[in-house]
Amino acid sequence: MKVSVGAAMMFLSMARSSVAFQAPRLSRRAAASLSSSVVSSRLFSTTTTDKSTYANPDRYSIDHPVNNIPPHIAALVGRGLHEKVDHPLGIINAKIKEYFASLDEEYEFFLGEDPIVTYKQCFDDLRIPPEHPGRSPSDTYYIDDKTLLRTHTSAHQSQHLNQGHERFLCAGDVYRRDEIDASHYPAFHQLEGVKLFEKHEDHALTGDEWLASGECEKIKNDLKNTLEGLMDHLFGPVEKKWSEDYFPFTDPSMECEILYDGEWLEVLGCGVIHTEVLDMAGRGDRRGWAFGLGLERLAMILFEIPDIRLFWSDDERFHKQFEEGKITKFKSYSKYPPCYKDIAFWLPEGYEENDFFELARGVAGDLVEKIDLTDEFTNPKTNKTSKCYRITYRSMDRSLTDDEINALQEELRAKSGSELNVEVR
Q1: pLDDT, tens digit, 9 for 90 and up, residues 100-154
Q2: In sequence order, what DSSP letters do the residues of 298-365 get, joined into one string?
Q3: I want to staple 189 with a disulfide (CB 3.0 to 4.6 A). Which of 123, 274, 295, 314 is the partner?
Q4: Going by C-beta distance under 8 Å and a sequence separation of 6 or more, which residues neighbour residue 232?
Q5: Which residues, 6+ apart, have CB-to-CB distance to 127 below 8 Å?
Q6: Residue of 268, 293, 291, 255 whose CA lies nearest to 29
Q7: How far apart are CA 355 and CA 370, in angstroms?
Q8: Which are the contacts of 137, defined by CB distance < 8 A and separation ≥ 6?
Q9: What is the average per-residue pLDDT within 313-335?
């Protein structure tokens, strides 16, 4: 079975509402620690906060006018999938750590950052402008007027640079409102990497002079060589190709694709850290690179896992298939029948599709496998627009009953009218 996925990181595409080195979704993973044979003086694990507090939903769903974190999202925080050594996300995370531990230079590894970050960390420090759609409440989960659930691990980049760290990896769970299908989930995991270079006279250059300098080219080539080595470590020797991209926090920016099972797959985004980002982090006298990737993306490819919801499953039939340090192909243990339901409504002014997707998740949780737009038209007389969606309900663990799905569908219809102000047809 071959799993086709799109961009692996938010970093990969500005078309995604948020911006980060990963796309993703895709989206919470990785390994708690490496075996003694892997951990060495070249790689350090660092925990910055008491993680026992992360799994408390009361931290996230609070009584505040801007808070838009529903209970089903708050319940996902603190699961630490990327720290479980026998979970696919943990296995991928450990293999990435293993690769960087094998390099000559020392890298620190940050695993325990608080998922609550400030607007400044998540947006301002990365040159993401106030008008960017990634700041919209339809894309981002806000806690109050100062903090939010991080939308990317890049939110910790400037923090660690300002603290004096020069080479580090950072992995964690991130959260974004998104569409509903087999490769998208509102919670997922990213891994960020950063490296600063020794001071050089070219570091005083800015703008086009810096971009044309030999030092900028050297940093870019070092980045590409490092990441090509990582891809070979994960996938075996594979053909790679690079293309220019745009991210507000790197310049120049690139994305990497690999040829795997006869298909070109986007796997990560990266670039030379923007001089303004370094200035804001108090490291304006230095230059360096950064990259980001989505752990779910890589795991879906390597383990051939067809549905992103499976990563969050408690079913032993899923978990017993995986073992620390080993990449094994997932064997589907069941395929329960889907149930299809349609819903159509007239749109109010300011309608945001992600709000409907979030509402559906809140009503039916992971029983919603996919939502497709099947019809859209505008009445020429009233100038009102109608959309019709087909909802695919399917459990990964059991058969669903008609009565169960009918009740969920009726609840969704009612809440769509009362909470989204749509006119259900």
Answers
A1: 999 999 999 998 789 999 999 999 999 999 999 899 999 999 999 999 999 999 9
A2: HHHHHTT---GGGGG---HHHHTT--TT----------PPPEEEEEEEEPPTT--HHHHHHHHHHHHG
A3: 295
A4: 238
A5: 248, 249, 274, 276, 277
A6: 293
A7: 15
A8: 66, 68
A9: 93
How many angstroms separate the CA atoms of 144 and 66, rounded? 6
Q: What is the pLDDT of residue 51?
A: 75
Q: Distance between CA 351 and CA 370 in Å, rounded?
A: 20
Which amino acid, residue 303? F
Mean pLDDT score of the chain: 88
Which pair of tokens denotes residue 62?
Answer: 């609070």
Helix axes 214-235, 88-101, angle to 10 degrees: 130
E strands, 176-279, in order: 187-196, 239-247, 250-260, 263-273
Cβ neighbours of residue 63 under 8 Å, at least 6 residues apart? none
Alpha-carbon span 323 to 35, nearest angstrom:
13
Q: Which residues of 377-415 are buried (b: 16+ CB within 10 A; e: fewer)?
A: eeeeeeeeebbebebbbbbbeeebeeeebeebbeebbee
Taking residues 323-351, report their average pLDDT.
94
109, HSE (Cβ side, Cα atoms, 13 Å): 26
> Which residues lie below 8 Å from residue 371, measured CB to CB, with a gap of 6+?
179, 180, 181, 356, 357, 360, 389, 390, 391, 392
395-412 per-position pLDDT tens digit: 988 899 999 999 999 999
At residue 392, φ and ψ (nearest 5 deg) are -100, 115
Instruction: Report the relative pairing of strands 339-346 and 250-260 from DSSP bridges.
Output: unpaired
Residue type, 234: L
pLDDT at 206: 86
- The residues with which 169 forms a beta bridge, in sequence order, are 109, 193
